[in-house]
Amino acid sequence: MINNLEEMLIAGRLATENLNSKLGEVHHQLKVKEGEIMHHITNEKKLEIEKNEVQLCNAELTEKHEISLQEIKDLEGLIQALAAHLVNLDKESLNLLSKFDEMASLYASCFKLVHQEKDALSKHAQNQYGELNTKFLTLTSEKDAIQMTNDELSNRVTELEKVLESTLAQHREECRLACERIRNLESEAETLISKKAEAEILISKLEEKAGILLERSTTSENQNQGLLLKVSALETEGKENTEKLQAEILKKSEEIDTFRNEIMKLEQHADSLDKEVSELRMVLEKKDQHILQYREHEKKLEDQIMESKSLLTAAENKISEGSKQYDLMVETKQLEISRHLKEISQRNDQAINDIRRRYEFEKMEIVNIEKDKADKAIAEIEGGCDQKLAKCKEESRQQLMRIQEEHTALVTQIRQEHDKKQLSLIAEHSEQQRRTQLQAENELREKTTFLRSEHEAQIKALRTELEDECQKLEEELNLQKSKEDRQRALLQLQWRVMSDKPKEDQEVNSKQEYSNKRSAIGSKRSHQHVLDSPYYEATQTPVPKLLKKVENAKAGSAMSIPKHHKKVTRHEYEVETSNGRTVTKKRRSTVMYEDPRKHKINTPKANTPASVVKSMKGGGHPRPSNIGDLFSEGSLNPYADDPYAFD
């Protein structure tokens, strides 16, 4: 019987251990399912976040669409403003065209006038150069003629000197003869004195004639000065003409300066005109140089005349000395000399008069020619300016028409391209919006259907598993209660049978007390452990309440998840020594509960019946429990002396 009871106790212990292991597996499965439930909750939260993100994206897209519509409206307004601006630009371009036509006409007229002035000045300069060349040639010819006359005079003077020398030689010879004849001619002295008086009278007359000649020379000098004054007057007139030309040039330069900002090419023409003016000034300077050379030549001639006069005076002195002896020879020679001098003076007067007449005639001709040339040049310049103005106007109009046509073509092209781009952008934007909306709706539908199916499958599996486990646990508890009742009845029978032996009764009573104490302590500890365990409420509460709690946990926050914690349990037990004393000992054990949030599941998997069976078969490690303390009774418990048994 005892062996049977021990076997029954062992079987009961094994059954309780199996039940404990099954409870541990159930607790582990509940943990896993709670983790899965939390994972589903997190997935639902993620889906809600994604849904919110999709809604935000839709809102952003709608805002972008509105912004694009506003931008399109702004672009339309800009296009209208550009059109108005283009109209204003067209008006301004027309005004500019009119102004440009006016400027072109003015420019052409100025250009023609400048060309005409240039031509006139060039022609005038050429004419003046030709005239100056002719004058220079005439002056050179006159100079050559004067030099010829001077040469002739010098030759005549040399001849006269030779004649004088010959006469002097003859006079010496005659003096010798006269010395011989003086004595013979003393009688004739009186006649000679009378002749001497007559000679003195003639000498006075000759002196008077010499004074007259001097006066004539002074008059000729005065005439030369008058000619010089006339030349200076002509120079002043030329200067006045140049000043007039310069004034006109300055006026035109001022007019050119007014148009210089608009037409830069006139500056080159003005520079060319300045160059031509400088050339004309050079020509005038050359003219002045020629005049100075002419004056110098006149001075040279005057010097030669003075030399000739000095020679004449010397000759007259010599003649006066020789006239004492040879009055007749001197008179004849003086008469010839006077004739020659008269002829020379007449020739000089005629030459001076001819030069005056030629100068005045040439001056008048030059003035008339220059006036005619200026009139012709002005007429030609005006005609050329008119032609160039007409050409410039036609060219500017053609260019403006081309520019307007190109401008209108560009505006139409820009508008067409803008309309095409606008339509393509609107179409692309609408298509992108439709695609994104369709994709988001399809994804949301798929995710919601998938999660609903998984959630429903998991809930169904959990319900079936929980109902099966609850039924099994109730059956096992009923079996265990029936076994405990049978064991108690058997123990009571043993106690009654063994009540005849007192020592054994004492031992049995002591061990019974010990077993009762230990069973009470063990029952208290087990009851406390069961109450402290987080799965006690799950085992005691019915299935619908559990489902409601699960639904409430889904709707709850992450703070409802149990954190990592530990449970400390203390065990007291008595040990019988060899002296018969009993010693109470204490032992402490800790049980760790991990945080279910550490078990991260990346992909949610639906619980199928096959997976549930696998989880039931291969559960986690069984948690130690103190249910075995209920069956420890005295010496019947083989593990009573083992302090580490049933811990």
UniProtKB/TrEMBL annotation:
<feature type="compositionally biased region" description="Basic and acidic residues">
    <location>
        <begin position="501"/>
        <end position="516"/>
    </location>
</feature>
<protein>
    <recommendedName>
        <fullName>Synaptonemal complex protein</fullName>
    </recommendedName>
</protein>
<feature type="coiled-coil region">
    <location>
        <begin position="242"/>
        <end position="318"/>
    </location>
</feature>
<feature type="coiled-coil region">
    <location>
        <begin position="452"/>
        <end position="490"/>
    </location>
</feature>
<keyword id="KW-0175">Coiled coil</keyword>
<feature type="coiled-coil region">
    <location>
        <begin position="58"/>
        <end position="92"/>
    </location>
</feature>
<feature type="region of interest" description="Disordered">
    <location>
        <begin position="501"/>
        <end position="530"/>
    </location>
</feature>
<dbReference type="GO" id="GO:0007131">
    <property type="term" value="P:reciprocal meiotic recombination"/>
</dbReference>
<feature type="coiled-coil region">
    <location>
        <begin position="143"/>
        <end position="216"/>
    </location>
</feature>
<feature type="region of interest" description="Disordered">
    <location>
        <begin position="555"/>
        <end position="647"/>
    </location>
</feature>
